[in-house]
């Protein structure tokens, strides 16, 4: 058995605000003692940008220039070179999360083309004959109430909507649309990320039986700069709110929790944007679909 | 006293003084050996007075007739009364409490069943190995992103291999149980993802609408699985919160819950929130709703309301109804007082009934060949539950509001089914107080949406649960209901109501109304012989009637009861019904007898029908049951002093129930009892009328007994009848019975059947024949026949009987007993007499030739026995000794030991007995020796005998006893 390293954080949620101090313990267990050339702990945070496949042709030149944007990179020495005793060694540590000047720590976000991730890494450097050891864990960043980017609080922005076969016809120029009418209202298009997205929907009438009514949460990620950009919209999750031929004229609640780490407060920066959209999808029994999109602004508070 | 000196010379006995000596003064019993000790109960006077009136008093039965019941009879009585209580199952106290789901579940599971194949779409069972790999994979995955991705992959894999099976109901149930087991197993192995997946799968099954009839049962089964899942999650979280303090907290206080636990709980809810499909998402969240307690004290409230509202998104109204029902169940479990979600559930549910009219829903249930009303009745369990939750401990005002609201919607589709739920769950006392209004409401409902019969039935059931304000109840109520019910064309609807309302009538109204109801039922069921389909219901009605009507006679006095019984035309149904009638009749008042001719005729009619179905194919248990029933019935008939009527009844019964021997036996016993009670009535002095009646009784027995099959029964009954005949001074009849008995003995089988087993008849014969002999003591000789004609015949038969084995000692023992009988006959006064019958002692008056005859016979028999003993010497010395001891025993009791020959014979026998005794016989020998010593104090001959015997034991030189026999 070889040596193993583990990092334990004192905070169970692994979620921190900027300027918080991460406290934790590095645990190294080894059956035999060994020499090392120093142990360091590194906080690493960056924005990774990718381009979608379909955009590659257009922006090929640009493609190469999308380098990760480093948000934080701090290294602290935990131990000077020396001997690591056998069995278990626990080294407590603490690191303050402080971004670079003018670079705030964005919230953790796992997307498709944009990823904002934070890692805590322990490196044990060893003599040149044996391999270095390292262990990395991810932790999450959330804006604190005082954070600059959290300054814009959510304002309730209700939205009512009405979708009818006529409205579809005029927009899409389709003749073959079954007769239906859906009305509804969304409690707010400006949501606090920890609170559920809510609203109501009424199927006033529908000629064809309905198969399903779904609420789709979409992410709209934009990568680019002054020269050009790629904008892609992908699905995060799809929640059914109506199953089968829903009763007419009864308000069906729209209710969805925002999944953690897959969503973050709407973020608009110079070289990338993370925005969200809600789409209400109506599927008829013959699998024809009708959807209505709404832009959504998320904020932490 | 006699010139013939033999080894057996009977001594003279003075039975009166012997009797005096033996009969020590006895004390009257005051306590039952099993009874409770009761002090200060001066009942001795009563018992002594009653004992003087009847010749034999059984102390046990004497005590039972008095107020103090012994514990066994009391337990029996308690069992009977408790049975009565249980039939009266709806006591008002039960209705006050909330009917728990567990009891409801049982009803649903038994009611909603199907024979159709149910299809089930599940994942293939290929995930086991995969999940194990997952766990190892899981360990080295660090980021949430990776983990989630992995989980999604797993989920895909899980959903990938779907299969659809057609299962029978039982297979389906097994499958669900299997899933539940798999789930617990996965949980134990720390495969939480798999556990959740199984739970989700279960949830999905509830969306499947095929075979709707089974849906309510399916719901019960699956929610059980979900409940288990909820418990697993909750308990794990509870354990987790314990780890910091060391013990599991009794109450969950969110502030004291460690962060780690809260985080896990939150994770669970986030995990569930991303379940794509609506129904499983709702169900799973409801299942683990209790876990909100770890996060905050009130959050569950908003969650519940939200979840109930989310049910509106479920397209199928039936599925939505049951999902709401599940939410209400969980609500009641978590917070009994929180009504908001229940109210929403109720309102939404009422709204959703509009959907039933839509084409989509209609095609769904019409495809499965269900009518609207049947389809609607599928809602009942869910609706009943929701309404029960809603109404529980609700104040009158709110209740009124709900009732009024329902009333305004009665003409709509939902009206009937909701009203039905209300009737099922409203407090019965409330329903009774407002019964007129509810009848009106029922009339306002639209028949095509919900059958009125079910409504009337529910109303009736509710009324049954509440006690009436007065008995007989308001006739108007019955009239207004029955006016409608009687117009029902569909017999099944009609019967559903009739079943309940007849029960109500039988409980609260007089037999007049009941009679009308029954005639109405007959009228409805007679056309096209529809009654054939409702035997079960009719039977149930009859059982209710029997249970509710206290006065059996008045029940059968109704002129419609027999036509009603005639509806049962299929034989086995009819027989079952009659059996239950007989059961109730016999067990209702076990002590009570009856002489009501109508009732008896009715019962005999039932009994005859039951009896006539018996045949060679009937099994033993059934035979035994019917025999018991019929015999008990016969015993219940008692005409009191009208003995002739009773005999007539017995004659009739004999003709009717000839197939069952045990019934015939009961009849013979009953006739004997009749004869004896007549004897008691006339105080032993028979007039011409009574003696001819007795002769009739005896004649009845005489011709009935030969029809029996079992020889032992015959023998015993012959003996009994002979005794009864002698008691009633019918000497020739008595002789006749004994002649029959003796004839019967001559070819008695070697083995007889007792309790279904073949047993050697030896033991029973010994008892019976000895019994006959002791009766023969008082039987006077028939002047036309020879001296001791019967005893002689008996003796001959004993000698010739082929049923004894060569190894059996019964023949020898019987011969010895015969010696005793003859020795008694010699006495000047016989030990006992029958009143008004002159026995041989008076007849012969110790006539010399009579005595000579007896002496001759005595010595002949004695020689015979000695010969038997001799024969045994070579074959079985042990038995020889035992028999010798028995012989010795009888000799010293009856023989005259003053005769030198006699005493010598006795000593020889003793020696022979001592040769090889088995332990039992040794004990007997010891007791005999004690007896001899006790007697030797007063009796010289015994003293001499004891000297001889004891001397013999010391003096071994005495010659072998065997040589002395010759």
Structure characteristics:
heterodimer, A: 301 residues, mainly beta, Immunoglobulin-like, six-stranded mixed beta sheet, 21 strands, 5% helix, B: 966 residues, mainly alpha, two-stranded antiparallel sheet, 4 strands, 68% helix, disordered C terminus
Biggest interface, chains and residue tallies: A-B, 32 and 36 residues
**What is the number of beta strands of chain A?**
21
Percent in helix of chain A: under 10%
Could you please say which CATH topology of the largest domain in chain A applies here? Answer: Immunoglobulin-like
Bin the strand percentage of chain A.
Answer: over 45%
Low-confidence segments of chain A: none
CATH architecture group name of the largest domain in chain A: Sandwich
Mean pLDDT of chain A: 84
Order of helices and strands of chain A: EEEEEHHEEEEEEEHEEEEEEEEE
Q: How confident overall, as mean pLDDT of chain B?
A: 79
Radius of gyration of chain A from CA coordinates? 25 Å
> In angstroms, what separates the terminal alpha carbons of chain A?
48 Å
Strand order in space, largest sheet of chain B? 1-2
Keywords (chain A): Endosome
InterPro entries (chain A): Arrestin-like_C, Ig_E-set, Vps26-related
Family (chain A): Belongs to the VPS26 family.
Subcellular location (chain A): Endosome
Molecular structure report:
The complex is a heterodimer of chains A (301) and B (966). Chain A has helices spanning 53-56, 60-63, 165-172, and strands at residues 4-9, 15-16, 21-30, 34-36, 39-49, 69-79, 82-84, 87-96, 109-110, 114-124, 133-141, 159-164, 180-186, 190-192, 197-206, 210-224, 229-243, 251-256, 267-268, 272-284, 289-299. Chain A is mostly beta strands and 301 residues long. Chain A has 2 domains: 4-142, Immunoglobulin-like (Sandwich); 159-299, Sandwich (Immunoglobulin-like). Chain A is elongated and about 80 Å long. The two termini of chain A are 48 Å apart. Chain B is built from 48 helices and 4 strands. In chain B, the strands form 2 sheets. A two-stranded antiparallel sheet of chain B has the order 1-2. A two-stranded antiparallel ribbon of chain B has the order 3-4. In chain B, strand 3 and strand 4 form a beta hairpin. In chain B, helix 10 runs antiparallel to helix 11 (215-245), helix 15 runs parallel beside helix 19 (380-391) and helix 45 (900-915) packs across helix 47 (940-954). In chain B, 37% of the residues are buried. Classes of the chains: A mainly beta (301), B mainly alpha (966). The interface between A and B is medium-sized, with 32 and 36 residues. Chain A: Pfam families: Vps26. Chain A: It is found in: Endosome.
């Amino acid at each position: 058995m070889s040596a193993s390293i583990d990092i334990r954080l004192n905070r169970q949620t692994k979620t921190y605000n900027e300027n918080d101090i991460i406290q934790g313990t590095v645990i190294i267990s080894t059956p035999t003692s060994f020499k090392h050339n120093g142990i360091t702990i590194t906080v690493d945070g960056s924005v990774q940008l990718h381009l979608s496949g379909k955009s590659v042709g257009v922006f090929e030149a640009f493609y190469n220039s999308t380098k990760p944007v480093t948000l934080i990179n701090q290294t602290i020495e935990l131990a000077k070179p020396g001997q690591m005793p056998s069995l278990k060694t626990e080294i407590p540590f603490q690191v303050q999360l402080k971004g670079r000047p003018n670079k705030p720590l964005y919230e953790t976000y796992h997307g498709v083309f944009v990823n904002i991730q934070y890692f805590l890494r322990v490196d044990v450097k060893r003599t040149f004959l044996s391999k270095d050891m390292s262990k990395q864990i991810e932790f999450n960043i959330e804006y604190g109430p005082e954070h600059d980017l959290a300054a814009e609080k959510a304002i309730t922005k209700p939205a009512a909507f009405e979708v009818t076969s006529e409205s579809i016809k005029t927009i899409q120029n389709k003749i073959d649309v079954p007769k239906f009418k859906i009305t509804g209202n969304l409690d707010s298009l400006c949501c606090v990320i920890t609170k559920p997205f809510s609203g109501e929907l009424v199927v006033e009438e529908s000629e064809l039986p309905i198969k399903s009514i779904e609420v789709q949460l979409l992410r709209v990620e934009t990568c680019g700069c002054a020269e050009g950009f790629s904008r892609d919209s992908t699905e995060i999750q799809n929640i059914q709110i109506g199953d089968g031929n829903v009763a007419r004229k009864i308000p069906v609640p729209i209710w969805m929790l925002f999944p953690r780490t897959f969503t973050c407060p709407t973020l608009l920066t110079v070289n990338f944007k993370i925005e969200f959209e809600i789409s209400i999808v109506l599927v008829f029994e013959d699998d024809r679909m009708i959807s209505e999109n709404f832009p959504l602004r998320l904020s932490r508070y | 006293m006699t010139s013939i000196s033999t080894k057996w010379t009977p001594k003279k006995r003075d039975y009166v003084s012997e009797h005096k000596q033996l009969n020590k003064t006895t004390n009257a019993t005051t306590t039952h050996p099993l009874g409770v000790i009761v002090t200060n109960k001066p009942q001795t006077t009563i018992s002594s007075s009653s004992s003087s009136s009847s010749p034999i008093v059984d102390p046990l039965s004497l005590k039972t007739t008095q107020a103090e019941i012994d514990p066994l009879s009391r337990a029996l009585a308690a069992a009977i009364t408790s049975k009565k209580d249980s039939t009266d199952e709806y006591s008002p106290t039960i209705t006050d409490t909330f009917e728990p789901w567990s009891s409801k579940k049982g009803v649903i599971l038994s009611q909603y069943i199907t024979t159709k194949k149910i299809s089930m779409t599940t994942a293939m069972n290929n995930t086991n190995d995969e999940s194990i790999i997952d766990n190892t994979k899981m360990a080295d995955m660090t980021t949430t992103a990776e983990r989630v991705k992995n989980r999604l992959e797993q989920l895909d894999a899980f959903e990938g291999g779907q299969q659809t099976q057609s299962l029978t109901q039982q297979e389906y149930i097994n499958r669900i149980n299997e899933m539940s087991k798999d789930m617990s197993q996965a949980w134990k192995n720390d495969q939480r993802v798999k556990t959740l997946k199984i739970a989700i799968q279960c949830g999905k099954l509830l969306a499947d609408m095929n075979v709707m009839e089974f849906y309510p049962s399916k719901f019960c089964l699956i929610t059980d699985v979900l409940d288990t899942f909820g418990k697993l999650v909750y308990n794990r979280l509870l354990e987790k919160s314990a780890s910091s303090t060391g013990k599991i907290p009794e109450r969950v206080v969110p502030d004291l819950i460690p962060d780690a636990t809260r985080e896990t709980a939150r994770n669970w809810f986030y995990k569930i929130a991303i379940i794509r499909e609506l129904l499983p998402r709702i169900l799973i969240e409801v299942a683990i709703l209790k876990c909100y307690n770890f996060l905050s004290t009130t959050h569950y409230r908003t969650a519940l309301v939200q979840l109930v509202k989310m049910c509106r998104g479920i397209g199928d109204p039936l599925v939505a109804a049951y999902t709401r029902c599940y939410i209400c169940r969980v609500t009641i479990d978590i917070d009994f007082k929180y009504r908001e979600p229940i109210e929403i559930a109720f309102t939404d549910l009422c709204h959703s009934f509009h959907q039933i009219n839509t084409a989509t829903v209609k095609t769904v249930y019409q495809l499965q060949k269900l009518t609207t009303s049947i389809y609607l009745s599928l809602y009942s369990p869910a609706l009943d539950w929701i309404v029960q939750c809603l109404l529980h401990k609700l104040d009158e005002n709110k209740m009124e509001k709900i009732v009024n609201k329902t009333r305004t919607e009665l003409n709509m589709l939902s009206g009937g089914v909701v009203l039905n739920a209300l009737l099922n769950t409203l407090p019965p006392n409330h329903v009774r107080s407002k019964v007129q209004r509810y009848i009106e409401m029922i009339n306002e409902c639209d028949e095509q949406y919900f059958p009125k019969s079910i409504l009337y039935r529910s109303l009736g059931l509710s009324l049954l649960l509440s006690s009436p304000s007065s008995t007989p109840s308001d006739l108007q109520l019955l009239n207004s209901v029955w006016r409608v019910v009687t117009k029902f064309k569909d017999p099944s609807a009609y019967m559903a109501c009739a079943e309940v309302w007849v029960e109500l009538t039988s409980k609260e109204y007089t037999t007049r109304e009941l009679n009308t109801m029954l005639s109405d039922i007959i009228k409805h069921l007679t056309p096209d012989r529809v009654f054939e389909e409702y035997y079960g219901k009719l039977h149930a009605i009859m059982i209710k009637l029997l249970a509710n009507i206290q006065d059996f006679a008045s029940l059968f006095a109704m002129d419609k009861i027999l036509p009603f019984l005639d509806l049962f035309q299929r034989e086995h149904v009819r027989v079952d019904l009659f059996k239950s009638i007989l059961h109730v009749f016999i067990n209702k008042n076990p002590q009570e007898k009856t002489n009501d001719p109508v009732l008896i005729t009715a019962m005999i009619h039932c009994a005859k029908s039951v009896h006539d179905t018996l045949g060679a194919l009937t099994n033993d248990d059934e035979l035994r049951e019917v025999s018991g029933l019929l015999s008990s019935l016969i015993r219940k008939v008692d005409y009191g002093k009208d003995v002739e009527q009773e005999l007539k009844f017995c004659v009739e019964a004999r003709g009717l129930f000839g197939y069952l021997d045990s019934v015939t036996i009961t009849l013979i016993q009953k006739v004997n009892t009749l004869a004896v009670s007549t004897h008691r009535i006339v105080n032993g002095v028979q007039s011409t009328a009574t003696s001819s009646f007795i002769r009739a009784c005896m004649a009845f027995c005489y011709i009935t007994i030969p029809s029996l099959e079992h020889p032992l029964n015959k023998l015993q009954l012959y003996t009994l009848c002979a005794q009864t005949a002698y008691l009633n001074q019918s000497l020739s009849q008595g002789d006749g019975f004994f002649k029959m008995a003796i004839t019967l003995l001559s070819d008695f089988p070697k083995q007889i059947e007792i309790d279904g087993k073949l047993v050697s008849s030896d033991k029973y014969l010994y008892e019976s024949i000895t019994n006959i002999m002791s009766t023969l003591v008082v039987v006077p000789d028939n002047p036309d026949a020879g001296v001791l004609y019967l005893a002689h015949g008996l003796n001959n038969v004993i000698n010739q009987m082929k049923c004894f084995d060569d190894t059996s000692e019964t023949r020898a023992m019987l011969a010895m007993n015969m010696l005793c009988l003859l020795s008694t006959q010699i006495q000047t006064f016989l030990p006992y007499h029958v009143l008004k019958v002159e026995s041989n002692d008076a007849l012969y008056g110790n006539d010399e030739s009579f005595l000579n005859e007896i002496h001759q016979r005595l010595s002949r028999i004695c020689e015979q026995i000695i010969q038997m003993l001799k024969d045994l010497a070579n074959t079985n010395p042990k038995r020889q000794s035992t028999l010798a001891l028995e012989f010795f025993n009888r000799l010293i009791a009856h023989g005259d030991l003053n005769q030198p020959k006699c005493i010598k014979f006795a000593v020889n026998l003793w020696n022979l007995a001592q040769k090889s005794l088995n332990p039992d016989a040794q004990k007997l020998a010891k007791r005999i020796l004690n007896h001899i010593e006790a007697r030797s104090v007063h009796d010289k001959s015994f003293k001499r005998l004891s000297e001889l015997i004891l001397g013999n034991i010391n003096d071994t030189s005495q010659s072998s006893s065997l040589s002395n026999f010759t």
